[in-house]
Design brief:
heterodimer; A: mainly alpha; MetI-like fold; two-stranded antiparallel sheet; 2 strands; about 75% helix; globular; B: alpha+beta; six-stranded antiparallel beta sheet; about 25% helix; elongated; binds adenosine-5'-diphosphate; binds magnesium ion
Chain lengths: ~290, ~375
């Protein structure tokens, strides 16, 4: 038995080695680095240097506020939209289901740079299709990228466009695992379709919804691509800067790895905390 | 309470016709069982009565009112599904009351109905549990309870016992019978198990490949089946079918030769027109209708292969040997401990304890 285990570990060794060097060690090391002053060489141990700065840093609170704002608005909207999309996809009346499924999934595999470029073009002040459409129904053009509120809206719309279909596909799998005869029983119980949705579909789908929400929370906490590419590094004037962007700016522009690590650990800690609260709030009654 | 009438009911899925014109009259308060092999259209027929499937052609009436265009919810029926179809996230109590709560039934009345159902089915102590915390038999009771709570005019059951083990099946069978007596309400019950059909039904509808083969009381089907399919389907173990040939007529009786039994002949009085001499016919004999040698009208000499001793009776699996074709027969004998190892076995059959079928399977009486 011992011997067999040893053999197994020898086979696993190459993987474990790589995992340790490129995964485990950075995780541990960045934690250690977050307690070091890294602005000047040599780095020195200073436990409150970065964490102390974090607590009083307006740039951090701005990024935190922006991230949480996106989280609080975009995630619920996207999950609701994904549920609606999943229910429509699951409808027996729908033709060409395979095509829709592919179309919903496609945004995820589109290159980030290409997708960001297209969104910038769509929301362009003078030539963008969005403003043309607004003008078409008699509304004035919106200067999407020079004001904070519209810029935030663009980011939320972009993220929603990219991930709603992905969540819808996951939710669809959950929907399909609910047996048809439960709905038939409810129909015979004279329960309307709308009530069936709220009293049967939603409760039975809850674990999947929570799963999607946790995935989305983790994803949004790390939000980087959209504010980096679509609103040009958190513009206007840091109005859409997220924690991910702040981390990037501190770590890879200013090469201040200690502070970047502290931000990274804050992001991870918040993602875990929010997810746990989410899971706890929606736990099954015993 | 209500009668259920099916008039020329046809069901098509796309181009496939699954039910070919069913005519069934179910009386008020009657217990009718649809029985037939898997895939013959029993569930489809039941689901059309429930309103869960459209009717392609024909007419279904419940309580004298044509319901073709009436929503399932408004037909006054309740259905018990094979898979129970309980709401998995609700307690037993919530499962029972869900429909009534959702439709704004007065609270006191809902509570009364739930209490009554839980008493009838003896599930009062399960009320706070969820379906996954129940055994198969308990889930089945809850499913039936949910139907009772609706106080329907007609109960529909789709193979409700097929997921239970043999012992529980017998127990629940008795309970369903008791329920029918207690509620006195019309019940339509679908099963592929002829024993369930025989024990539960006031009348049985035998289905085969979307056709109704015969409708009748259990023992009428057993004694007087309309054709070879019904004869073979009703009764356990199955009826034996012996290949035979018309060899002549004798005073209004047919004389048939059992071709696989060394020319053994049986004289069978018939009231129908006699089949043509030389034509192929089939003689049906139930396992319990073989007698000791010399006691009947025609003796058969067989080789016994295997015996199954059930205690009360024994079943002998025998064959007709090598004379002509080889025919396997099942014969019920008095209980014994005798091991059959290729022994000779002589049994006798009686003309009035055997049935004659023509080559198409139609009964010749
Ligand atoms: N929704 C459907 N679409 C197409 N064919 C179906 C459908 N439901 C049932 N059938 C077919 O109808 C026949 C009868 O089915 P069913 O009524 O379920 O049989 P049973 O309950 O007697 O086993 C089967 O051949 C089955 O394949
Ligand atoms: Mg069936």
């Amino acid at each position: 038995m011992r011997y067999q285990n040893a053999t197994a570990y020898r086979f696993l060794a190459p993987y474990l080695l790589i995992f340790s060097i490129f995964w485990l060690w950075p995780i541990i090391d960045s934690f250690l680095i977050s307690f070091q002053a890294t602005r000047t060489v040599p780095w020195r141990f200073a436990p409150t240097f970065n964490w102390g700065r974090l607590i009083g840093d307006p740039a951090f609170f701005n990024a935190l506020k922006n991230t949480l704002l996106i989280l609080v608005i975009q995630v619920p909207v996207m999950i609701s939209l994904a549920i609606v999309m999943a229910v429509l996809l699951n409808s027996p009346l729908l033709k060409a289901r395979g095509l829709f499924r592919f179309a919903f999934f496609a945004p995820v595999v589109v290159g980030e740079v290409a997708y960001s470029a297209v969104f910038r073009l769509m929301f362009n002040l003078d030539y963008g299709i969005i403003n043309k459409l607004l003008n078409g129904i008699g509304l004035p053009s919106v200067d999407w990228f020079t004001n904070v509120t519209p810029a935030m809206a663009v980011i939320m719309m972009a993220v929603t466009w990219r991930w709603a279909g992905y969540n819808a596909i996951i939710l669809l799998a959950g929907l399909q695992s609910i047996p048809e005869d439960v709905y038939e029983a409810a129909t015979l119980d004279r329960v309307s379709k709308v009530k069936q949705f709220f009293y049967i579909t939603l409760p039975l789908l809850k674990p999947i919804i929570v799963f999607c929400a946790v995935l989305s929370i983790i994803g949004t906490m790390q939000l980087f691509t959209e504010p980096f590419l679509i609103t040009e590094r958190g513009g206007p004037g840091g109005g859409t800067e997220t924690l991910g962007l702040l981390l990037y700016r501190q770590g890879f522009r200013s090469l201040n790895f200690g502070y970047a690590s502290a931000v990274a650990y804050t992001m991870a800690g918040l993602a875990i905390a929010i997810s746990l609260v989410q899971i706890w709030l929606t736990r099954e009654p015993k | 309470m209500a009668a259920v009438t099916l008039k020329n009911v046809i069901k098509r899925f796309g181009v496939f016709e699954i039910v070919h014109g069913a005519n069934i009259d179910i009386d008020d308060g009657e217990f009718v069982v649809f029985v037939g092999p898997s895939g013959c259209g029993k569930s489809t027929l039941l689901r059309m009565i429930a309103g869960l499937e459209d009717i392609s052609d024909g007419e279904i009436a419940i309580g004298g009112k044509v319901v073709n265009d009436v929503e399932a919810a408004d037909r006054g029926i309740a259905m018990v599904f094979q898979s129970y179809a309980l709401y998995p996230h609700m307690t037993v109590e919530q499962n029972l009351s869900f429909g009534l709560r959702m439709t704004g039934n007065p609270k006191a009345d809902t509570e009364r109905r739930v209490k009554r159902a839980s008493e009838i089915l003896r599930i009062a102590e399960l009320m706070k549990r969820r379906p996954r915390q129940l055994s198969g038999g308990q889930r089945q009771r809850v499913a039936i309870g949910r139907a009772i709570v609706r106080e329907p005019q007609v109960f529909l059951f789709d193979e409700p016992l097929s997921n239970l083990d043999a012992e529980l099946r017998v127990q629940m069978r008795v309970e369903i019978s008791r329920l029918h007596k207690e509620l006195g309400v019309t019940m339509v019950y679908v099963t592929h198990d002829q024993t369930e059909a025989m024990t539960l039904a006031d009348r049985i509808v035998v289905l085969n490949a979307g056709n109704i083969e015969q409708i009748g009381a259990p023992l009428d089907l057993y004694d007087d089946p309309a054709n070879r399919f019904v004869a073979g389907f009703v009764g356990s173990p199955k009826m034996n079918f012996l290949a035979a040939k018309m060899v002549g007529a004798d005073n209004g009786a047919a004389v048939v030769e059992l071709v696989n039994h060394r020319g053994a002949r049986l004289r069978k009085p018939l009231s129908d027109a006699l089949p043509a001499t030389g034509g192929d016919v089939v003689l049906g004999v139930r396992p319990e209708h073989f007698f000791d040698a010399g006691q009947g009208d025609c003796d058969l000499t067989l080789k016994a292969d295997v015996a199954e001793h059930l205690g009360s009776v024994s079943y002998v699996y025998a064959n007709s040997g090598t004379g002509g074709g080889r025919e396997e027969l099942i014969i019920e004998r008095e209980a014994s401990r005798h091991r059959a190892n290729g022994d000779d076995l002589v049994v006798s059959i009686k003309a009035d304890r055997s049935l004659l079928f023509d080559a198409t399977g139609a009964r010749i009486r």
